[in-house]
């Protein structure tokens, strides 16, 4: 891989250096312009990712997790804009970068894979072209050489008969193989950060496991920092080191996977855990979280979860809780987290 | 792929057969007796009956139809009594000018339509986008014969920089080709604009951006290629429209093509030529559509799979 990816001058070493914090997001807020007025999709979100670490962001649809992921690559939809906060990639603030500056980061330092690999790949270009394009456009590599690199990458992500399949179009591949193509493309230039937005949601369960295994392998091999956006707690448990639970545009709980899964501290997290059928569990009943996620054009007063919270009381309606640290690296945004911990 | 081509060829033959049948029926129900026209009003009933028998017009329609099919297969449409030559030859002589007119109109349409549509899409909702869309609506609304006469008045009569009728030069092609193209420039421009804006919302565009590609590459390499697929099919229809609208434009500019021939032959009830013209035009149209379909299969690799 080193032969293919000459490190540009001035970039910090991948490992061994002081700089292992690959990503630092602080107070990020994203608003959409809608007819009803501004819709606050992300409301003050902070998290960080270290090298060789996987952070999962979980939440239901509409919780702002995908918009957060898009913001990390400067790709929020055209109707949306970042209104507050900062995003630092390898120590460099990237909010307010120009198009040209973003182009140098995307693919080179931070890459992204998407939920549906069929629609995410261009239907009229061969997969070989789409992978080789990374080298040709970013590095000015010649056509033949870029093609060889593409074949090499496809073999690395486990696509059988890679050299021969270069000239096939995406529709000739199965869902899992397409996601492998996406991964090959995303990792072509050895980025330090990979954002995976629901990478296995569109895949069969058996294929899911293969893709997750591949992602884990690549994380170890390339010392990648990874962010997995998912609503699937099972997937998160299998790949993530740490998890951040998002609700209504805010992170309501963070911690390591064993901590959060073992003893949820936020009533929403607790509700999520109870809504997942446990394969080996017996006797425990499956409970849904009552109600609907709030309208982000008019979020509720106080804690945004209070209309659905079984523990809600007067204080929750009036005063929005601030995130507070329970132990090192473990934070929760709830007035009565201790009661939840006792309950779990 | 071979199967795909084979099936499309079979379809094309069926279409040609259908077209020949429709033309045959249409001409037989049209009022006007060819024998009367050929012989003039002084002809005696005996002479008329004799000529009708000679022309085979007194046989039952079905017999005439089968005989006609046989003739068409042998490319024999009969004699043009007005020109005293084989009807097919009279038609083919005039095909060249019509095709060159249609091809140039196509060139104008594609170049101007793509330029305006692409520009409008890249600057969607800007004042220039609105200007383009108003202009295209006006261009589509104006009747070609009026445009033709106006252009002729301005450029040939007024400015005297272009000839108003065919004189065999490239310059004489410009006005009729532009007149023919104008309504379709706006039409194609809008089609291209909508297509591009639709493609821009596709997931693969976001992927291309996430790959760190420049706007230019995202647009010209990724988006435009996918926009071409539906547009190219439309171009086949366009060519047919050029041949059809060409009739009016040819008459306005006295262009020696198949259109003026058709109009003249209808007014003289030169049925053999009318039949030959309509059949040739239909076959051209069907062949064009066949070519477009094949091109479509090439541009969108998924087509082959679905038909295999």
Order of helices and strands of chain B: HHHHEEHHHHHHHHH
- Give the C-level CATH assignment of the largest domain in chain A: Alpha Beta
**CATH third-tier fold name of the domain at 96-272 in chain B:** MetI-like fold
Distance between the termini of chain B: 7 Å
CATH superfamily of the domain at 96-272 in chain B: MetI-like
Query: How confident is the prediction overall: mean pLDDT of chain B?
Result: 82
* Overall geometry of chain A: globular
Mean pLDDT of chain A: 87
Order of helices and strands of chain A: EEEHEEHEHHHHHEHEHEEHHHEEH
Could you name the ranges of chain B where pLDDT drops below 50 across 5 or more consecutive residues? Answer: none
N- to C-terminal distance of chain A: 47 Å
Integer-rounded radius of gyration of chain A: 21 Å
Helix content of chain A: 25-40%
Give an overview of the whole structure:
The complex is a heterodimer of chains A (344) and B (308). Helices cover 33% and strands 23% of the residues of chain A. Chain A has 13 helices and twelve strands. Chain A has helices at 65-72, 99-105, 117-120, 127-139, 143-156, 162-165, 175-186, 205-222, 233-239, 257-262, 267-274, 314-318, 337-343, and strands spanning 21-34, 37-50, 54-58, 80-89, 92-93, 110-113, 193-197, 225-230, 242-247, 250-256, 324-327, 330-332. An eight-stranded mixed β-sheet of chain A has the order 6-7-8-3-9-10-12-11, with helices on both faces. Chain B has a domain at 96-272: MetI-like (MetI-like fold, Orthogonal Bundle). Chain B has helices spanning 2-29, 34-39, 45-55, 61-73, 87-122, 127-141, 144-158, 171-200, 203-210, 215-252, 258-267, 271-299, 302-307; strands spanning 79-80, 85-86. The model of chain B has no long low-confidence stretch (mean pLDDT 82). Chain B is an all-alpha fold. In chain B, 80% of the residues lie in helices and 1% in strands. Chain B has 13 helices and two strands; from the N terminus they run ααααββααααααααα. The interface between A and B is medium-sized, with 31 and 24 residues.
């Amino acid at each position: 891989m080193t032969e293919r990816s000459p490190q540009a001058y001035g970039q910090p070493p991948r490992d061994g250096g002081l700089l292992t914090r690959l990503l630092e997001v602080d107070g990020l807020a994203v608003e959409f312009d809608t007819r009803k007025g501004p819709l606050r999709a992300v409301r003050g979100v902070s998290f960080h990712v270290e090298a060789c670490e996987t952070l999962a962001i979980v939440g239901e649809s509409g919780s702002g997790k995908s918009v957060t992921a898009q913001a990390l690559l400067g790709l929020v939809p055209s109707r949306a804009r970042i209104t507050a906060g900062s995003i630092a990639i390898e120590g460099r603030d990237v909010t307010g970068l120009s198009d040209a500056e973003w182009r140098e980061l995307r693919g080179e330092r931070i890459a992204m894979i998407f939920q549906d690999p069929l629609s995410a790949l261009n239907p009229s270009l061969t997969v070989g072209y789409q992978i080789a394009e990374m080298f040709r456009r970013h590095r000015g590599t010649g056509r033949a050489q870029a093609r060889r690199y593409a074949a090499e990458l496809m073999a690395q992500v486990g696509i059988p008969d890679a050299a021969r399949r270069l000239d096939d179009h995406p529709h000739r591949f199965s869902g899992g193989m397409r996601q492998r193509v996406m991964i090959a493309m995303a990792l072509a230039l050895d980025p330090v950060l990979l954002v995976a937005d629901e990478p296995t949601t569109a895949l069969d369960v058996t294929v899911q496991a293969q893709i997750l295994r591949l992602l884990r392998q690549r994380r170890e091999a390339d010392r990648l920092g990874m962010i997995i956006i998912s609503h699937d707690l099972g997937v998160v448990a299998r790949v993530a080191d740490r998890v951040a639970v998002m609700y209504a545009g805010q992170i309501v709980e963070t911690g390591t996977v064993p901590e959060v899964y073992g003893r949820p501290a936020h009533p929403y997290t607790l509700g999520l855990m109870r809504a997942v059928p446990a394969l080996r569990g017996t006797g425990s009943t499956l409970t849904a979280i009552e109600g609907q996620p709030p309208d982000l054009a008019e979020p509720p007063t106080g804690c945004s979860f209070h209309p659905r919270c079984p523990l809600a009381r007067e204080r929750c309606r009036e005063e929005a809780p601030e995130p507070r640290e329970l132990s090192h690296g473990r934070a929760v945004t709830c007035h009565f987290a201790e009661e939840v911990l006792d309950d779990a | 792929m071979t199967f795909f081509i084979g099936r499309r060829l079979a379809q094309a033959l069926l279409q040609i057969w259908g077209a020949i049948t429709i033309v045959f029926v249409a001409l037989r129900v049209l009022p006007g007796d060819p024998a009367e026209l050929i012989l003039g009003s002084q002809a005696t009933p005996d002479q008329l009956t004799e000529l009708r028998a000679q022309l085979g017009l007194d046989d039952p329609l079905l017999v005439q139809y089968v005989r006609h099919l046989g003739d068409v297969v042998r490319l024999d449409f009969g004699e043009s009594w007005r020109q005293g030559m084989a009807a097919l030859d009279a038609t083919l002589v005039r095909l060249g000018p019509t095709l060159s007119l249609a091809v140039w109109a196509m060139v104008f349409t594609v170049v101007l339509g793509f330029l305006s549509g692409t520009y409008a899409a890249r600057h969607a909702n800007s004042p220039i986008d609105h200007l383009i869309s108003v202009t295209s609506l006006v261009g589509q609304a104006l009747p070609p014969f009026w445009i033709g006469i106006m252009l002729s008045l301005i450029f040939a009569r007024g400015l005297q920089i272009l000839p108003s009728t065919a004189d065999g030069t490239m310059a004489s092609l410009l006005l009729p080709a532009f007149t023919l193209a104008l309504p379709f420039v706006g039409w194609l421009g809008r089609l291209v604009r909508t297509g591009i804006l639709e493609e821009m919302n596709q997931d693969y565009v976001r992927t291309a951006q996430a790959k760190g590609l420049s706007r230019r590459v995202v647009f010209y390499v990724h988006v435009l290629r996918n926009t071409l697929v539906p547009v190219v099919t439309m171009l086949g229809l366009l060519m047919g429209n050029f041949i059809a609208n060409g009739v009016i434009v040819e008459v306005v500019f006295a262009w020696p093509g198949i259109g003026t021939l058709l109009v003249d032959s209808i007014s003289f009830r030169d049925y053999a030529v009318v039949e030959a013209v309509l059949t040739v035009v239909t076959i051209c149209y069907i062949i064009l559509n066949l070519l477009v379909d094949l091109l479509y299969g090439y541009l969108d690799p998924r087509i082959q799979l679905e038909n295999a």
